[in-house]
Amino acid sequence: MKKSKRTSIRTKITLSLAATILIMVVMSCAITMIFIKKYFYHSMEQMLLDTYNSCNELFGRDEDIDSKELANDVINQSGAMIFIFDSVNMHVYTTVNEEAAVYNNLSFIADYFNYSGGKNPDNPKIKRKQIEKTDKYDIQITNDRNTGNSYYDVVGFLDNGFVVIIRKPISSVDSTIVTSLKFFLLVFSVVALLGFVMVYFISNAVAKPIKNLASVANRMAQLDLDVKVDHASNDEIGELADSMNEMSYQLRNTLTELQQANAKLQTDIDEKVQIDEMRKEFLSHVSHELKTPIALIQGYAEGLKDNVTEDDESKEFYCDVILDEAGKMNKLVRQLLDLNELEFGVDRVHPVVFDIDALIKNVVDSSSILVEQNHAEVELADELNDVCNVYADEFMIEQVFTNYFTNALHYCNDGGKVRVWTANKDYDQPRRTEDGLVTGNLRVFVYDEGPNIPDDELDKVFIKFYKVDKARTREYGGSGIGLSIVAASMAAHNKNYGVYNVENGVVFYFDLDIIQQDDGEPEMIPENNADNTSEQ
Predict the structure, then answer these.
(1) 3-state DSSP call for residue 141?
(2) CA 536 to CA 534: how far, in whole Å?
(3) What distance in Å separates the CA atoms of residue 322 and residue 337, rounded to the nearest whole number?
(4) What is the pLDDT of residues 445-465, one digit of tens each?
(5) Are 28 and 185 in contact (CB under 8 A)?
(6) Which of 67, 266, 416, 495 is buried most deeply by CB count within 10 Å?
(7) Phi then psi for 108, rounded to 5 degrees?
(8) Hey, what's the torsion of the CAs at 495, 370, 457, 453, to 10 degrees?
């Protein structure tokens, strides 16, 4: 379905407000044109009556009055012509020039009104339209047939019996109406123009935050939940902006929690797959490792049972093979149990403070027979004669160093060197433990003078059952598990370990925390500030 062309909110607001202003201006013009004449005529009647009442008040005083006082003292807002006739004393009071033609007309009306009592509307010289009639005065529209002009007249008697005529030409009222209409039309036009200009800016001001909200909503639809609506007004748009910001915050938190849950689920799935693969691999490797010694034990045991050989020397050889293979199987099972407990069992790390130099010397001394059998030359660095306290699980670290050292003895050349040394680095931020202050990192190196490990296999030597030289490993009874125990032990300590090639040999290393036992109470540093990232 084809999408219709979009009309912007600014355009809609502009058109709506402009139409509203236009309708209001047109209605104002129509109302003005319809009612302005009635309004002016009504206002004129009120002003003429005010003039009549003012004349009545003026002539109600007991004093002589002349035409000058009449012009000055009477309220005459409309500027009407005033004619007052004293029929007893035959005296005229007027604001009209006696030489003007309108004076004669006013005199004639006064005479007529005085002598006829206003009862004869059919006088041929006067044509009038009565607007209002009371006991004291009539309000009428009078047509002057001589001049063809029309007048608004208040004709009647004052309280003292004087005839009064107050006249205002209708033409002057009509001209005022026309002038007012022109002025109103001009004002309405200017107001409409200014209104349209204001509508443009108002629509922009109103549409801008709405467009901003729409832009933010579109970005939210694209899952950009870090976007915020900047709108500080305390109105419905501001409330909507706050709601959108809160929605963005909640969605971001929910999405983060969902991603974390998905990541954890994926990790669990990966771990399950890895465990399944490790289980399959484990069964495969164990089967492979046990197949040879079981076959040997079975073969030599059957030979003894069937009396394949009669001499005692051969029987003793058969028994030695069976015991040797059984010992290898026993060693393999114990290593597997240790590795399984490290990888899947309870956390076995029980850190204590011990002298790593003394541990290294003890392992080297206890391996003297193995050193002689491999015709190796062991060199210990001078710094190993000092005391260096470390903080770790002493039993596990002894296993780690023993595996490194025996591995070096087995793989070094006949008469080759095995060298052990250490290097330490102080931490920028020591950390406090219950046994002392961890001040630095100690790296223990074990070098064997022998063949290099192929570069593409360096990262595999710590994998269970992996053997670089399978024939040589089998020769000294290795199972490929020792370095896996090293990896699991160092991972449990959350410390680095690894291997690299050098000229004419291979170097294995592992890291430990150096600890200083003192009575001080330095500031506690969180454990995660230490350099304790594992690596292979």
Answers:
(1) strand
(2) 7
(3) 22
(4) 999 998 888 888 887 788 766
(5) no
(6) 495
(7) -65, -45
(8) 110
pTM: 0.43
Burial pattern 401-422, b for ≥16 Cβ within 10 A else e, equals bbbbbbbbbbbbeeebbbbbbb
Picking from 19, 225, 54, the residue whose alpha carbon sits closest to that of residue 154 is: 54
Cα dist from 456 to 38, 177, 501, 530, whole Å:
108, 107, 12, 31
Beta carbons of 173 and 44 less than 8 angstroms apart: yes
Angle, CA 343 vertex, CA 342 and CA 345 arms, to 5°:
65
Label the pairing between strands 91-94 and 137-143.
unpaired
Buried b (16+ CB within 10 A) or exposed e, 88-103: eeeebbbbbeeeeebb
CB atoms < 10 A from the CB of 343, how many? 16
Question: Poorest-confidence range of 113-122, 148-157, 208-217, 437-446?
Answer: 113-122
**Residue partners of 426: CB distance under 8 A and separation at least 6:** 439, 440
Encode pLDDT of 332-371 as tens digits: 666 566 656 665 555 577 889 999 999 999 888 888 878 8
Please tell me the total number of residues recorded for the chain in this structure: 536
Eight-state DSSP code of residue 450: S
**287/310 Cα distance (integer angstroms):** 33
Region of residue 16 (left: phi > 0; alpha: psi -120 to 50; beta: else): alpha
* pLDDT band, residue 105 (cuts 50/70/90): low
Q: Which domains does the chain have, with CATH numbers?
A: 10-176 (3.30.450), 347-529 (3.30.565.10)
Structure tokens at 95: 């604001």
Best CA proximity match to 481, nearest among 367, 290, 295, 333:
333
For residues 40-52, one letter each, b for 16 or more C-beta atoms within 10 angstroms of the residue's C-beta and e for the rest, the string is ebeebbebbbbbb
